[in-house]
């Protein structure tokens, strides 16, 4: 998989890819992540990429021309399955979308800034608009990093133990059950006996039951 991220703040998209699972996924060649500084595609000497809104109003708008130049250059090099725009008024991201995106070959992610992009960018280039929740970030970069993390860890071969993504919360619309590790007793607080019983069938049953109970308590909407 190849991910191209278009941003005015490429420095915000460095460290998430320089540690742990994402770093290893890149090293293994399972994913390539490239950032593109939108200012490099500015069409004037001031490296301008934003301008005042037509009709007036506070806040700058990202101009269509640099974005068109950047996307066109990328599209001249390869085909893209999706051109994603990170925006608080997009569709709320979830595990289903992460699964879908993990199956794509090449995607572009455009990070919004200021008031956002000229609507014509959204109308003519963007194939999917993603929000990471009902709150407003100062830019789309951290949201893009979060989406990349959720997607990349689902690419086959990225996680050491293939089954561990399958037992994540949300993977089958259930939250994950409680988990424990040694010691079996700490300050008098004990681990549920069933987990140390060695009875794998019963343990599996207990986990399913706990996952269901937890979901019912915390996220009944997932069961609807
Ligand atoms: N940009 C600013 N806020 C955002 C959000 N909640 N989701 C995605 N992109 C954003």
From TrEMBL:
S-adenosyl-L-methionine binds at residues 112, 132-137. Pfam families: tRNA_m1G_MT. Residues 1-224 form the tRNA methyltransferase TRMD/TRM10-type domain. GO terms for biological process: tRNA N1-guanine methylation. It is an enzyme of class 2 (transferase). It is found in: Cytoplasm. It catalyses: guanosine(37) in tRNA + S-adenosyl-L-methionine = N(1)-methylguanosine(37) in tRNA + S-adenosyl-L-homocysteine + H(+). GO terms for molecular function: tRNA (guanine(37)-N1)-methyltransferase activity. Its EC number is 2.1.1.228. Specifically methylates guanosine-37 in various tRNAs. Belongs to the RNA methyltransferase TrmD family. Homodimer. This is tRNA (guanine-N(1)-)-methyltransferase. It comes from Aequorivita viscosa.
């Amino acid at each position: 998989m190849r991910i191209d991220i278009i941003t005015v703040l490429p420095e915000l998209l460095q460290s998430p890819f320089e540690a742990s699972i994402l770093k290893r996924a890149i090293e293994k060649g399972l994913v390539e992540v490239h950032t593109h500084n939108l200012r490099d595609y500015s069409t004037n000497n001031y490296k301008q990429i934003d301008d005042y809104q037509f009709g007036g109003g506070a806040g700058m708008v990202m101009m269509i021309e640099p974005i068109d130049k950047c996307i066109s250059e990328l599209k001249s090099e390869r085909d893209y399955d999706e051109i994603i725009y990170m925006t608080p008024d997009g569709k709320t991201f979830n595990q289903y979308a992460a699964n879908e995106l993990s199956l794509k070959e090449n995607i572009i992610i455009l990070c919004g800034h200021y008031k956002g992009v000229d609507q014509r960018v959204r109308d003519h280039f963007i194939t999917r608009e993603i929000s990471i929740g009902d709150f407003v970030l100062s830019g789309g970069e951290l949201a893009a990093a979060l989406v990349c993390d959720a997607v990349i860890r689902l690419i086959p071969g990225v996680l050491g133990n293939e089954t561990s993504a399958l037992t994540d919360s949300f993977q089958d619309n259930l939250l994950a059950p409680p988990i424990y590790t040694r010691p079996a007793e700490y300050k008098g607080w004990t681990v549920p006996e069933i987990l140390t019983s060695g009875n794998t069938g019963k343990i599996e049953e207990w986990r399913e039951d706990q996952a269901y109970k937890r979901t019912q308590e915390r996220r009944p909407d997932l069961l609807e």
